Amino acid sequence: MTYNRLDLLKECVSALLNQTNVVSHIVVVNNNSNDGTKEYLDTIKSSQVIIYNLTENLGGAGGFSYGLKQAVEETSDEYFWLMDDDTIVDLKCNEMLTDVAIKLENKFGFLASNVRWKDNTPTNVAEVTDDWPDLIGEGLVKVKTTTFVSFFTSRDNVVKGGLPISEFFIWQDDVEYCLRMNQFGPSYFVKKAIAIHKSNSKPGTFLVQNDTVDRIPRYFYQFRNNMYITKHYRGNKKFRKMIRVNLVDVIRVFVKSKDHRVKRAMAELKGTLSGIGFDPEIRKVGDQVD
């Protein structure tokens, strides 16, 4: 999935085309970029690369949902590997992930890569389970959630479990999808499957009170989508607690923010209130979209 990061897209595609375990297809979803991405993609003539140039930006969640749906319907591939354009995978990454999937006899929810930032420090760190060391001797750590920075799952899981929720638009769609995939088996962090996340800033270093002003609107989706996840996966008691905690936290954000205090606090308030009734349906492959 790509949006206005042409140079990174080229690097990402190159890494995929040069995997030691050749990928059958690369599905590129151009989320209505205006930086020359479409023109670059038009120069790719390989049947291995399937390109969709969208006429509107569907957000990260919408882009992943659309691309995964097309990949399942237009190919017969056994596995699907999701990533943004700023994910640069090691040339053996697909080999490492596929080998683990085969050893597990496809009895897994998802596999997560060993993601590093540009300075080689860990980033996009997966959330481990209580019994995380079960397969540590094989370089596998059992996890609950990860991100769509090199996320690997099977065709069977996607067909049975459905697609990422496009209405999330941005943020937390990957967390929800991980929790959903876990119903099909344990999920693992794969130590030898290396990926570099070339994001502008290291994920997790910014919060609504200190992020740049242009990114503040995104936090509406974070708070709203977290409400959905809590309601559906952690129960009504924790859902009600989250409402109370968030409403109190609005005051903290207003007090602690470095600037644009009202805008920052309102992102959390509006996201929380919207999340109370936010309940989009889960679409399956083959469903018709209105």
Q: How would you sum up this structure, described in words?
A:
This protein has helices spanning 6-17, 37-42, 59-74, 93-103, 155-161, 173-181, 218-233, 236-256, 261-277, and strands at 26-30, 49-53, 79-82, 87-89, 111-116, 127-128, 140-145, 151-154, 187-197. It is of the alpha+beta class and 290 residues long. Strands 3, 4, 5, 6, 7, 8 and 9 form a seven-stranded mixed β-sheet that branches. Strands 1-2 form a two-stranded parallel ribbon. The longest helix is centred in the C-terminal third of the chain and has 21 residues, at 236-256. The chain starts with 5 loop residues before the first helix and ends in a 13-residue tail after the last helix.
Q: Would you list the SSEs in sequence order as H and E?
A: HEHEHEEHEEEEHHEHHH
Low-confidence region ranges: none
**Quick one: overall form?**
globular
Q: Say how many strands there are.
A: 9
Quick one: CATH class of the largest domain? Alpha Beta
The CATH level-2 architecture of the largest domain is identified as Alpha-Beta Complex
The total number of structural domains is 2
Q: What is the name of the CATH topology of the largest domain?
A: Spore Coat Polysaccharide Biosynthesis Protein SpsA, Chain A
Given helix and strand content, the structural type is: alpha+beta
N-to-C span: 22 Å
Q: Please report the number of helical segments.
A: 9
Largest sheet: 7 strands, mixed
Mean pLDDT: 96
Fraction of helical residues: 25-40%
**What is the CA-based Rg, rounded?**
19 Å
Which band does the percent of strand residues land in? 15-25%
Keywords: Glycosyltransferase, Transferase
Pfam families: Glycos_transf_2
Pathway: Cell wall biogenesis; cell wall polysaccharide biosynthesis
Protein name: Glycosyltransferase
